[in-house]
Write a structure and sequence with these properties.
Elements (H helix, E strand, L loop, with lengths): L3 E3 L6 H8 L5 E3 L1 H19 L24 H12 L3 E4 L2 H16 L7 H12 L3 E2 L2 E3 L8 H11 L4 E4 L2 E4 H8 L10 H6 L3 H31 L9 H5 L4 H14 L3 H4 L11 H4 L1 H22 L8 E3 L4 E3 L7 H29 L21 H17 L21 H31 L8 H11 L12 H12 L1 H11 L3
Parallel strand pairs: 1-2
Antiparallel strand pairs: 3-5, 4-6, 6-7, 8-9
Helix pairs in contact: 1-4, 3-6, 4-5, 4-9, 9-11, 9-14, 9-15, 9-17, 9-20, 11-14, 14-15, 15-16, 15-17, 16-17, 17-19, 18-20
């Protein structure tokens, strides 16, 4: 397997996707290690010259005015880790912890933090051995870095804390021994460098974005299935309509829908029916789905920069040998795009739920009520829509922006914070809710298409229906619904579902 070499400046979101799955080894580039050595020398020289440097020979936050004696500099770093490991809540998932380890190693590899190469190597040792620190999900306000969660990560480097290894929760020291890794003794500045930074917020935001980028393709496919099931018209997707508005995402979705519906006998069979226009949830898919696509492009641009940024404090500028205190640890850029991620994902779920309801109501469609041919005795998909409604309602609360809030901390030294970690965490929750709503729409659209006995779907939609039916049979009579939603959810999450449809129509 090829190795991903990191240097603090060339990491991509696609690299992160591979590493997050646990099957991509990572190493530090030699030239990056050389820069780390030179940068560390600047810190050592400053200590010898007894320069006052925040977090090296001073306290932290409000205690930054208090000098720490040279004999206590190493104890200062350990005390920082112990006291800041104050997170609570359920542990972050393996996917997220791998991403955090990668991002932390990459930002330190950039060579502005003053840590030894050993620190980056140890982070990569944890990653490559899949020793995943137990990091509680709550406890960061997204300023001065993700202090609490990153402290829990750092504990393991010291041989403390806890680790998930092969689905077992064990002590940090036991984990290091199993992998033959030595615990480290932090030197001056290194504890602060490990805790400062936006890596937890950014990891959450990146994983949310990657899942949403996959989901926007799935939404177009399932939306096209619903159009066929509801015998909709493709007129609203005529490229001339979208060109005169000129929005890239809107034009892309309209084109996707036309390609997905090409050669559909169902659509052509209703070309001259009395219905002039479809409901907005069908007709305005390009406008709604397209806006999500455009937002994703903007979010991607911010996150692609952040994953290769120096977000420590203070920063060491090697060429000038300057050590400058600033605020790159502040997660406001990520907080705001994380909120945007949640908002647009919520809208994708909202319009999907409306298509579900449209298919279930015999007054708005020609389909059997609740998609069951023996209503009364059977309830069909009645409660599936209720579940979708509950999820979109939850999303509307979660989509309230966290980034507009701030609670001063550290005795007003840190008087304006980003709340970025919560913004990104709830964005990921919204994306997952959206995945489930689209899974329910997939089930409903497949059921609706089954009712068409005379006309044939377009080739890609016919194949999508076959993919569903390979896992989930037609709903002839009521049976247990929850496992079928779960199977549809796994299909929505799978790369195979999109790849096989793209084999028919090209990239969506």
């Amino acid at each position: 397997m090829s190795i991903l070499w990191i240097d603090g400046k060339s990491l991509t979101l696609e690299d992160i996707f591979l590493v997050s799955k646990g099957n991509q080894p990572v190493s530090l580039k030699v030239e990056a290690a050389e820069r780390l050595i030179a940068c560390r020398a600047v810190i050592e020289e400053a200590i010898q010259e007894k320069k006052i440097i925040y977090g090296v020979n001073t306290g932290f936050g409000k205690f930054s005015d208090i000098l720490v004696s040279e004999k206590n500099l190493l104890q200062l770093q350990e005390n920082l880790i112990w006291s800041h490991a104050a997170g609570i809540g359920k542990p972050l998932t393996p996917e997220l912890v791998r991403t955090i380890l990668l991002l932390k190693a990459n930002t330190l590899a950039k060579g502005y933090s003053g840590v030894r190469p050993l620190i980056v190597h140890r982070l990569l040792d944890l990653l490559n051995h899949d020793l995943l620190p137990v990091i509680p999900e709550k406890g960061s306000v997204g300023a001065s870095g993700d202090l609490a969660p990153l402290a829990h990560l750092t504990l393991v480097l010291l041989g403390e804390g806890e680790v998930f290894f092969k689905q077992q929760r064990i002590s940090g020291m036991e984990a290091l021994k199993l992998a033959g890794i030595e615990a480290i003794k932090l030197q001056a500045k290194e504890g602060l460098a490990l805790l400062n930074g936006t890596q937890v917020t950014t990891a959450l935001a990146v994983i949310a974005l990657l899942r949403l980028e996959h989901l926007i393709k799935v939404a177009d496919i399932i939306g096209a299935m619903s159009i066929e099931a509801l015998k909709g018209t493709p007129t609203a997707f005529d490229p001339r309509i979208h060109q005169v508005r000129g929005l890239a995402g809107q034009m892309r979705v309209a084109d996707n829908l036309l390609r997905l519906l090409k050669d559909s006998q169902i659509v052509l069979g209703h070309k001259y029916c009395a219905k002039v226009q479809d409901a907005y949830s069908l007709r305005c898919m390009p406008q709604v789905h397209g806006t999500v696509r455009d937002a994703c492009q903007f979010i991607r641009s911010i996150l692609s920069t952040e994953i290769n940024s120096a977000t420590d404090n203070p920063l060491i500028f090697l060429e000038e040998k300057d050590i400058l205190s600033g605020g790159n640890f502040h997660a406001q850029p990520i907080s705001m795009v994380a909120d945007l991620t949640g908002i647009v994902a919520a809208q994708l779920a909202n319009i999907s739920e409306r298509r579900i309801e449209y298919m279930l109501d015999p007054q708005t469609s020609s389909l059997a009520g609740f998609l069951t041919e023996r209503g009364g005795l059977n309830s069909g998909f009645m409660m599936a829509q209720v579940t979708a409604a509950s999820l979109v309602s939850e999303n509307k609360v979660l989509a309230h922006p966290a980034s507009v809030d701030s609670i001063p901390t550290s005795a007003n030294k840190e008087d304006f914070v980003s709340m970025g970690t919560f913004a990104a965490r709830k964005a990921l929750d919204i994306v997952q809710n959206c995945e489930y709503v689209l899974a329910i729409e997939l089930l409903c659209a497949a059921q609706g298409l089954d009712f068409e006995k005379k006309l044939i779907s377009s080739p890609p939609i016919d194949h999508a229906l076959k993919l569903v039916r390979a896992e989930i049979p037609h709903w002839e009579r009521d049976r247990l619904m929850a496992p079928e939603i779960e199977k549809a959810y796994q299909l929505v999450r799978s790369e195979k579902f999109v790849q096989e449809i793209e084999a028919f129509v090209g990239a969506l």
